[in-house]
Amino acid sequence: MDESELAKMKELLELAKITEQQAQELANFTLAIDHKYEKRLAKLKLDKKLKPSSIE
Q: Which domain of life is it from (predicted)?
């Protein structure tokens, strides 16, 4: 393996590490959004159950 191939391999490895880090950050962000959504949905369901039904 010559110097240029080695340099390309190192660059690819660095890009792979960056991509993995960004994928992890995106996964964490998605989980945080999902958690907020689930919490909000649970609150809405609870509010609906606690709200007295109007009889007309």
A: Bacteria
Q: What is the pTM of this model?
A: 0.68
- For the chain, helix, strand, coil in percent to 5 are 85, 0, 15
Residue 54: the pLDDT is 58
Indicate the domain borders of the chain: 1-25
Residues 6+ apart with CB under 8 A from 1: 9
In 3D, which of 24, 20, 42 has the Cα closest to residue 32?
Answer: 24
Q: Which CA distances in Å does 27 have to 17, 22, 47?
A: 15, 9, 30
CA gap 14, 19 in Å, rounded: 9
